[in-house]
Amino acid sequence: MRSGELARRSGVSTDTLRHYERLRLLPKPPRTQGGYRDYPEPAAERVRLIRNALCLGFSLADLKGILEIRDHGGAPCRKTMEVARGKLRQLDEHVRELLRARKQLQDVLREWNLRLARSGAGVPAKLLESLSLNAKGGQFRSRPARAPRRRKRP
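Now predict its structure.
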């Protein structure tokens, strides 16, 4: 099948197919007499495999190593599991970071609500100016708003 057909069946562009070839994720197909790529039927399954693995977080470099082992007659199953476990650890850490960021933003919004309640209509509350970076942990927090100064009466 030609590049356009494989691309349509696999849900990728022809540029992506050529990129996979350059990375040796997809074997270079034979050419027709007219110079067109003529992919064998298993190429569609290979591209789907790559796309599915990418959706799970595998990188093209990860897949290159795994598929090289497979293409040379090896069984990359243990390596695949090891890579997937590493991806899960990275994902878990990312979730923890997102939860910390969420908590931080909730705290800032709580302080900003107080600032807005204390400032009069049309008076700048200087919300962004109230942010300060906590040197420890690189977290932002909003500095508490100062109560407006009252003039002393004579």
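The two ends are 93 Å apart (CA to CA).
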